[in-house]
Amino acid sequence: MECGTPIQFEEFGFSSTCPKCGAAHRLPRDASGVWIATYSYNLDIIQATGAATALICRKLGGARKADFDIIERYPLYLPVWKFTARAQGWFIAKDGRTLPLDIEKHVRVPGYDTSYIGFPEFHEGTHAVISSETCFPSLQVKLKPDVLEQKTEELMQKEVEHATGGSAGRIKYTAEEPVLCLHPAWVMRFRTKNGEHTLVLDGLTGAEINHLDIRLRDEKQLAETVLAVSCGIIAASGVAIGAASGWHGLAVGLIVSGIGLFVAVNALRFILRAEHSRPRAKPGRAGA
Amino acid sequence: MPQGVRCPACGTPFSGEYALPAVCTRCGVRFYFDEFGSLVPHVAECSLNESDATARVREWAATVKGGKEFSRHFELARMELRYYPLFVFSRAQNGSPVRIVASAVPDCEPGITSVNVIPPSLKEAVDWSNFTPPKISPASYGKIMNVDPSSRALVFYPFWCTQYVYRGKLSKVTIDACNGYVSGDLNVEIEKRNPLPAAAASLVAITLEGALAYFNWLFALTAITVTGAFFIYTSREWGVKE
User: Fold this and answer.
1) Scanning every residue of chain B, which has its alpha carbon at the shortest distance from the alpha carbon of A69?
2) Is the complex ipTM higher than 0.90?
3) What average pLDDT is seen over chain A?
4) Element (DSSP H or E) covering residue A164
5) Which residues of B touch A189 (CB under 8 A)?
């Protein structure tokens, strides 16, 4: 940084050396002593707008730029805790012996409410290029450092149960070397004929973070109703034929076809949607 | 502290405390300064009172995706008037000037940076008592917003800010206190509806109407047509919130 070269830090590391001048650097700390890693933006406003436009066009089913307006775009840092979660202690094995336990893993935990913003995907080996910018709009940190140990217990429960086989013992959970990473994001608010939406993009990769479901509600609702009415007409013609002419075979066939078609289409849609909305990498898990 | 700061009004060198606003010892003007120099900020006048702002939010609530159900059931908190410090950067794009607005404080509410401001047309900010001084350097925006940080102007822009509770979730909403434009966060906008129950109801209703053919084919055909048209016409309003 002193020579102007960007310094790269390993994702769970605190110190690094400048590749050019060899000067050693550590992550800065805030007033409360928490290490802060501020990632640099890879995408500027023009690149982010281009990425958002392409994404919105794709989401709106091939819409053109004229079909929506981007009304607001701003950079926003998302606070993410990164630390080494550790479970240490002892447990009584099934044969009665007392065995030591020491498990650790790297975790990433969102420090903000992810319900509408989403959580960025991290790839193993992502390095932080520490930004010289110290203050940008950022989301409020809701997960305070003093509750990280409690969070560690939640995160390590599966691993501990797997290792101990559910046996009794005494385990201590610690969150070691927590770093508050400020992950860059772009917030794009845009307007379509159906309302206003917000898209959150990763400021490093341009990937979508909030997985916005811009369903063209009216069109989908209409399609669903038209399908139901069509199936209803098929089934109703079966009922009508059965009631008026007594051709029961044909009547039953039509009723079964109408109802069956409706059920089949909706079941297929349900399966596809379930596949699509299957949770991705869970926040807080190592390597997520 | 930046070196060589001068009062933007009278040019007197500033030697006071490093705090905003700076006050000129000679002419008494309150001004803003950073590494690019000093300037007198502007302020946009608030032209919307609290009851108008509340009315705008209720109008907005009726038109957003949650529709009638949302406007009936959301609870609005108390309104608060805040003057947000905004940097307005200028740059030329294809020969015409473009203004880019960015927040000068770390918290950014929805709609804050979507305002259309032309600083020279605004009043100069003389009294800073209601204003929050900037906490972000304009240099932070230079690279990623593709702007020249020294082109910044500082504007204090009024917003009515409030929160609402809807279906147990707290969300923010801001109202531009100059033109009444309402910006909400994502809570309502990602509302989903499940059209399946309504569609299934239409299927059952139409199927049963087929039995009217026992009396008269025309009755059955008319009933099916009317029911089908009714369901299709009202399909926007039907559906169950997920």
Assistant:
1) B114
2) no
3) 79
4) helix A148-164
5) 110-111, 114, 183
Considering only A119-123, B111-115, B190-194, which range has the smallest mean pLDDT? B190-194
Report the gap between the CA of A85 and the closest CA in chain B (Å): 30
| B contacts of A197 (beta carbons < 8 Å) | 186, 189-190
Q: What is the DSSP letter of B122?
A: S
Span A177-184, average pLDDT: 87
Which is more confidently placed, A67 or B186? Answer: A67
Sequence-distant (6+) residues with CB within 8 A of A96 are: none
**Mean pLDDT (chain B, rounded):** 80
SS3 call for A277: coil
Q: Which two tokens stand for residue A114?
A: 């992810």
Helix (H, G, I), strand (E, B) or coil at B38: strand
pLDDT at B156: 92
Contact B186 A198 (CB under 8 A): yes
The two structure tokens encoding residue B156: 């204090």
Contact present, A235 and A258 (Cβ < 8 Å): yes
**Smallest Cα distance from A148 to chain B, Å:** 24
* Rounded Cα gap, residues B180 and B49, in angstroms: 10
